[in-house]
């Protein structure tokens, strides 16, 4: 995967957007109702409006959007192609903006249905993505994830054309996140990083970005959650999230994400929360196949005991992940999410069907194994 985005980062790094908007006639700006009211975002929107010929504002992206939500957004846009698509928000906004960069490029043969059917588009519109959460890393991936309510799961549309042209990492846009969202999105980023690092398709490129991202995340996640005004910690978390997305682009996630998909698709559990409840249990399951890599990750932890043997480090890492989720006050049991034990057979069957992720698990995994993991956290 060739990631050729231009990255702009730092506090107030977009105080002058003129060079990004030059010669842009029609812009489509994608966000949601919560984000659009943040003063810093309102200032960016005003700057964009002054810099383009016309601005179409799409501010109704829901959490965990479905294909029906995207279809409704498309119906609200006229057929004229856009010169630039700008996404400001969390992962759902990023994914919708990336899809619109394909669907508003002027190629009428490319539709949402054709993308869901696997068609590979040939052109895109210039895109600028500005995340307001530090977790999904969507601004670095070629993926857009949509809920499919009829199947009670989620699917990924994947094409290199969805890699954005420009990415802006602005820490001041993340300070309004409640602590719980900062925590759950941070754990989402950690899942991307550690799953890609241990995946069967891991490679030197994905390993390098995953280690760099985890180094930043372990040093900054709890500070960013506890001190929302700490701009350096917030910026480092944006970079950790970006590195997580880059790791996905070069490798892929596996067991945590396969098992979290039905939690989101059927029960509408926020993605970061679903990942948090599964992180330590899934890492405990794959630990025997990832001892050496777990030892490398352990070495990045604050106050790591570097004298331990690799096996001891791998066990210590799993315990650290378990305690980290607890310290962040995130759910640790399915009961906390109001999911009954009777639902576990469905969850296991649904998770094992996500074969594009299951094939990345670094050891054999069966439906019975997945059932046992869910059952352990019932």
Short note summarizing the structure:
By secondary structure, the protein is α/β, with parallel strands linked by helices. 49% of the residues lie in helices and 11% in strands.
Explain what the structure shows.
With 378 residues, the chain is of the alpha/beta class. It has 2 domains: 6-173, Rossmann fold; 179-376, Dehydroquinate synthase-like - alpha domain (Dehydroquinate synthase-like, alpha domain, Up-down Bundle), CATH 1.20.1090.10. Helix content is 49%, strand content 11%. The chain is built from 16 helices and 8 strands. The chain has helices at 18-21, 33-36, 39-51, 67-75, 91-103, 112-116, 179-198, 204-226, 231-250, 255-265, 271-286, 291-298, 310-327, 344-352, 355-358, 367-376; strands at 6-9, 26-30, 54-58, 84-89, 126-131, 143-148, 153-158, 166-169. Strands 1-8-5-4-2-3 form a 6-stranded parallel sheet, with helices on both faces. β6 (143-148) and β7 form a beta hairpin. α14 (344-352) packs across α16 (367-376). The two termini are 38 Å apart. The mean pLDDT is 94.
